[in-house]
Amino acid sequence: MYRPDLEDTIVAVSTALGYGGIGIVRLSGNNALSIADGMFMAKSKKKPSEFKSYTAHYGWVVGSRRSPVTGHQTKRKLRATGNDIIDEALVTVMRAPKSYTRQDMVEINCHGGLVVLKTVLNLAVSLGARLAEPGEFTKRAFLNGRIDLTQAEAVLDIIRAKTDAFLKVSLNQLKGDLTLELENIREYLMGIYVELEAVVNFPEDEIDASPRRQLLNRIRKAQERIEKLLASSEQGKILKEGIKVVICGRPNVGKSSLLNVLLKQPRAIVTEIAGTTRDTIEETAQIRGIPFQLIDTAGILEPRDSIEREAVKRSRLHIENADLVLFVIDIHEKFSAKDKEFIDRIKGKNVLVVLNKCDLAAKLDLRKITALLKGRKMIKVSALKRIAIDALEKEIVKSVWKSKDIDTAGILISNTRHIYALKECGLNLQEAEGALGKNMPLELVSEGVKAAVSHLDEITGRSVSADLLSRIFSEFCIGK
Ligand SMILES: Nc1nc2c(ncn2[C@@H]2O[C@H](COP(=O)(O)OP(=O)(O)OP(=O)(O)O)[C@@H](O)[C@H]2O)c(=O)[nH]1
Ligand SMILES: [Mg+2]
Hints:
Blueprint: H1 4-7, E1 10-13, E2 20-28, H2 32-37, E3 40-42, E4 56-64, H3 75-80, E5 83-94, E6 105-112, H4 114-126, E7 130-131, H5 136-143, H6 149-160, H7 164-175, H8 177-201, H9 209-231, H10 233-241, E8 243-248, H11 255-263, E9 281-287, E10 290-296, H12 306-321, E11 324-330, H13 337-345, E12 351-356, H14 366-372, E13 377-380, H15 389-400, H16 416-437, H17 442-460, H18 466-474
Parallel strand pairs: 1-7, 8-10, 8-11, 11-12, 12-13
Antiparallel strand pairs: 1-2, 2-6, 3-4, 4-5, 5-6, 9-10
Helix pairs in contact: 6-7, 8-9, 8-17, 9-16, 16-17
The structure holds guanosine-5'-triphosphate (GTP) and magnesium ion (MG).
């Protein structure tokens, strides 16, 4: 079948742009080998098209101003034809179908400089390659059936993983663990669908009450598997996106000191002057293997100018969107109306009360706090003297991470697209179950099961619109 999006030979710099020991220019497509022949001179005097698959060859990338280079040439001859050595390189050829894209591929390992890589890239383009779009190599791997859509998405997750735990989960997905589970459920549902259709089309074989009950149980089993996948999404999303923790409290209680201690670096300015932090400060940190987005806010309550007004607006917004609020109080001070104002702001939020400055004598009446923040966990720490910081970290993790362990061996759903489709699939099964239970026509049950299957197919990419595909792959970096 002619696939226009697979016909061109594409080229891209696959390593991050910037200075590096090496940089890789990657080609994929029918003409990858002939293009490489036109720009690479191996020391062995062999052409890339003569290289064995998966062998690396040392040589030079040579630029052609007038005509492409063919085979090995002496330096004098090179100069005479207007060619120049652009870089020393190592070239690997991976022939179809045993390559990332299932097409002929060439990887040119050059030096990792911006000018070098750009020149090599332009050279490939001048020989007929087209600049690859973001994620186009992985898209080809998907379109050529080497991986399914969840595996393609896992590649993106691996590149963007913020923690070891999420990296492991994404690797499982790339290995095909999620694909396997989804395909198993699909097969199971298709079995039910085929049986239902047989009865719908040959009504003389209408099933009686007992098989109806059996069918109901089977649909429920599939539903349980979908629910199990969905249940993992809370952990999955947290591992992927991080947990938003907002540090708030009135001025001078030690919010910025606490941020610095949790980050293990002096990120925010700390002074004894109340109102030191005016803008919100956001940083990411890993606490016990879980990614956190820590946000230090201004403690100002009565803004004096437009900058402070904006700061107050931002801290309110952050509190609204927080997964966890660290409400900091100075244990060395008496409870004040300002503390109370913050308590009003964090009503209804997941709050951990941090009683800071425990290295100093306590003047705070804890009963007031307990009464106002009923049921909220409290912990005494000293950001300055680093007292009980370990315990605080444990409490932070505990208040957002409900289960004991991070199960990186299993499947964790983390992709919003998957969550949405699984929910839809579950709803369709629920409808089918309802129709079956109420003795409604089996056509309705069959329709529900079929719709459920179509949502699974959306996830794996068995049936996916071109629009969705381009949306998914546009998130990739160029060269992947
Ligand atoms: N003794 C003692 N002093 C602390 C502790 N934590 C912070 N401080 C001091 O309290 C003062 C205020 O600390 P910051 O971290 O700037 O407080 P903040 O809540 O960020 O203040 P604003 O940015 O003004 O809202 C500084 O002088 C800190 O050194 C602590 O645990 N013990
Ligand atoms: Mg501060």
